[in-house]
């Protein structure tokens, strides 16, 4: 949608045009009455009234239609900006993937699997990252002892490091550990590449400077994502994933999810720089995901879309349930009731955070059911765009019909000046026509 002209500028142009034409009429005819008629007629005929009502009514009903689809819109103008985007930038966990990672491979080198998991869980104990929680939870399920660390540090997008019994432990990305001079055998590096090519997340566990093995995790792609991405591509919107995973892992996920591209090995600050770079290239960016994970990138986007659906990584041990399938809680066991209550509380928590972000204007749109809902809000926004463009054409046509006779330009053809009352009737009719056309949005 073309950028709308601010009404204040149109009003200023209206006043200047009316004053100029009235002055010209006074100088030409030396008749004050005629000059006043031109002044009033041009003020009314060139009034931005019809233009000013082109968007508000349409966007008001568009926002209501979005709410009927369980989509929250912070400001109606966000719908206009949504129509302009050509690039959708997304995170990975809880956006493209289900957000429920699990350990698939334990590959120790020179020690037992249980020892490898114990080292990793001891290092990750102080982290709240989803992957750290999975490692610690798996260790607890297997009754593997976790040792307390005397010092802990987390490097976003890279990994963690801890001090245990005077020995340093590191768990994280291969590239980060190599930069820290870790000694990783050729066999482990080969395994890392193989796992990454299958879309898994390989983490190296180091004790001191020596790599002790690999812990590989998998986060399945949300089933509806590939079809959603393909439909967005048909609408001219490319989907690009930003992730801290390796390039091989990111490429495998991008291929499975039908993404246009994937940028890998990115820290939170690196994701923000990628968004800035895409904008400098002329892209109009919408960032969709979970603000807590990619806050810096959200701040750089033209439009921010919060996913309110709680990631399974936050749910933890609670089993997956479809709340819409549950009809009667009386028939559920006590455990199922507890799981349902936790699910509801987590859903409400995510929705509340999303609504708070909308109110604070840190976000524009909230999609409670995940990324596939973007197709619904895009459809609503495009229908609103069509009506607004129709309304603007009516406003332009009104100016074209009213301004020339109001200014007296047609008097050379011996046509009379347009009277103020006639100009008012014409402008009022156009305004009512625009409002009536806008009401079509009420029914979607």
What does this structure look like?
This protein is α/β, with parallel strands linked by helices and 444 residues long. The protein has helices at 7-29, 32-45, 49-52, 56-68, 77-82, 113-124, 130-141, 174-179, 186-197, 225-234, 247-256, 268-280, 295-300, 312-315, 334-359, 374-407, 420-438, and strands spanning 72-73, 87-90, 102-108, 151-155, 159-164, 167-172, 201-207, 210-218, 238-242, 261-263, 285-289, 303-307, 365-367. Strands 1-13-12-11-2-9-10 form a seven-stranded mixed sheet, with helices on both faces. It is elongated and about 105 Å long. Mean pLDDT is 83; it is low at 311-332.
Instruction: Count up the helices.
Output: 17
The CA-CA distance between the termini, in Å, is 19 Å
CATH class wording of the largest domain:
Alpha Beta
Q: What is the residue-mean pLDDT, rounded to a whole number?
A: 83
Key features of this structure:
alpha/beta; single chain; 444 residues; six-stranded antiparallel beta sheet; seven-stranded mixed beta sheet; Calcium-transporting ATPase, cytoplasmic domain N; Rossmann fold; 13 strands; elongated
Any chance you could write out the topology, listing elements then pairs?
Elements (H helix, E strand, L loop, with lengths): L6 H23 L2 H14 L3 H4 L3 H13 L3 E2 L3 H6 L4 E4 L11 E7 L4 H12 L5 H12 L9 E5 L3 E6 L2 E6 L1 H6 L6 H12 L3 E7 L2 E9 L6 H10 L3 E5 L4 H10 L4 E3 L4 H13 L4 E5 L5 H6 L2 E5 L4 H4 L18 H26 L5 E3 L6 H34 L12 H19 L6
Parallel strand pairs: 2-9, 2-11, 9-10, 11-12, 12-13
Antiparallel strand pairs: 1-13, 3-8, 4-5, 5-6, 6-7, 7-8
């Amino acid at each position: 949608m073309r950028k709308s002209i601010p009404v204040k500028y149109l009003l200023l142009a209206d006043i200047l045009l009316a004053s100029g034409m009235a002055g010209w009429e006074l100088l030409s005819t030396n008749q004050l009455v005629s000059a006043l008629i031109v002044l009033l007629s041009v003020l009314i005929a060139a009034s931005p009234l019809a233009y000013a009502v082109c968007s508000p009514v349409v966007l008001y009903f568009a926002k209501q239609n979005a709410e009927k689809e369980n989509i929250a819109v912070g400001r109606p103008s966000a719908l206009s900006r949504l129509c302009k985007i050509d690039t959708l930038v997304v995170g990975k966990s809880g956006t493209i993937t289900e957000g429920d990672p699990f350990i698939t491979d334990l590959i120790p080198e020179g020690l037992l699997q249980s020892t490898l998991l114990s080292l990793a869980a001891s290092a990750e104990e102080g982290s709240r990252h989803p992957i750290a929680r999975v490692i610690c939870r798996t260790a607890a399920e297997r009754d593997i002892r976790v040792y307390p660390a005397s010092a802990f540090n987390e490097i976003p997008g890279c990994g963690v490091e801890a001090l245990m019994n005077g020995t340093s432990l590191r768990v994280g990305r291969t590239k980060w550990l190599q930069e820290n001079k870790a000694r990783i055998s050729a066999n482990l590096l080969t395994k890392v590449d193989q796992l990454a090519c299958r879309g898994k997340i390989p983490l190296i566990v180091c004790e001191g400077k020596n790599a002790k093995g690999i812990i590989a995790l998998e986060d399945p792609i949300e089933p509806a994502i590939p079809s959603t991405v393909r439909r967005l591509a048909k609408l001219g919107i490319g989907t690009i994933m930003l992730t801290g995973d390796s390039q091989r892992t990111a490429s495998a996920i991008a291929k499975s999810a039908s993404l246009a591209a994937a940028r890998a090995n990115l820290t939170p600050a690196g994701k923000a720089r990628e968004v800035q770079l895409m904008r400098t290239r002329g892209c109009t960016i919408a960032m969709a995901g979970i603000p807590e994970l990619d806050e810096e990138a959200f701040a750089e986007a033209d439009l921010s879309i919060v996913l309110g659906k709680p990631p399974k990584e936050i749910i933890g041990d609670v089993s997956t349930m479809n709340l819409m399938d549950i009809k009667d809680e009386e028939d559920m066991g006590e455990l199922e009731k507890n799981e349902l209550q936790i699910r509801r509380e987590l859903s409400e928590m995510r929705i509340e955070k999303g609504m708070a972000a909308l109110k604070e204007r840190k976000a524009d749109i909230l999609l409670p059911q995940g990324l596939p809902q973007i197709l619904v809000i895009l459809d609503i926004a495009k229908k609103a765009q069509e009506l607004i463009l129709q309304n603007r054409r009516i406003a332009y046509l009104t100016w074209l019909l009213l301004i020339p006779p109001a200014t007296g330009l047609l008097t050379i053809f011996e046509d009379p000046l347009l009277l103020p009352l006639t100009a008012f009737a014409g402008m009022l009719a156009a305004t009512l026509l625009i409002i009536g056309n806008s009401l079509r949005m009420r029914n979607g």
